[in-house]
Design brief:
71% of the residues lie in helices and 0% in strands.
Amino acid sequence: MDAVLMNQIALGLFLVLNLVVAYYATKGAPKTMESYALANRSLGTTTLLLSLFATLMSTDNVALYLTYTDGVMGFFYPLTFVGMTLFLGYFVFPKLVYFRKEYTVAGVMKSMYGPFALLSTVLIMTLFSFLMIVAQLKEFGQMGVFLGLPPTTLIIGLGLFIACYTSVGGVRSVAFTDVLQFVVFAGGFLVFGTIVIRSHSGFAAIWEQFPKDSELGLFLSHPTFGRNFFSIFFWSIWPTVLISPPIVQRVLMTPSEKRVRSIFLIFGGSYLFFRILTTIVSATLFCVSEEIPDGMVSIEIIVGLICKNIIGRLLFILSFAAVVMSTADSLLNGREYYVDP
């Protein structure tokens, strides 16, 4: 079977499976705003954890060029992100469970600081969510080279598909499709990463290709140090992703402080493991550096170079689609609740 056709069929089946999961997740659910917005705070810890993980895994987290372009410095942000996640997850987010009458981050801000805070939250988070959704869909357009479709078609088609099941099913459909998407991208990327690492003769061989003369230069003297340091500093003091509507929504869906702390603790450790894997896979680019066009590190070029295995590429496409959907659907769903109903 032609590789492009196989990719198209696999992606189509994955999308259909998302619709099936969304349908059964909302079948028989109460027709109330609390059910639509917070699933009556009845979802289990595992569902909430996997939904949170899937929501926070944007396309930036599977950017396979970071180690190649930024060196070890590219791994500093995940470390900072985990630290901030654990801090907020232990000391700040558990307190939100007492806002039992609120469905949204805007509602929480209004309760604490008044109407002006509500308006400010609506404006800031609407812009943030819009830009994030556009960025995720734009990245998915790069999969066109593997699917034989124009990027615009992929972007518009996937955007409409996501809007359909999120708007109709509410947070129940989003949470349960997040679980499916987590299984696909975590499992798919794990197998993809294993295939890539083994195809380059394992960790030792990859390390041998690492530019030894720049090991120390990967820090202060690395060309991207200034940009990375500013990014780490800025996002540490203003963790917009972690206080975005879908994340606060997941916290409001959690019935107790203890469960909130447990979820974020498990997430922190799991996220770090995933980023270590991403970093190692990204390092395989040093093994094929002579084949990379100057300044060209797009997804299609990277995957084409580091993975010659057709099944491996297919798994990456499905994983990438799952990452895009899990972030975009949560942002789109959260956006409906900025203003109290």
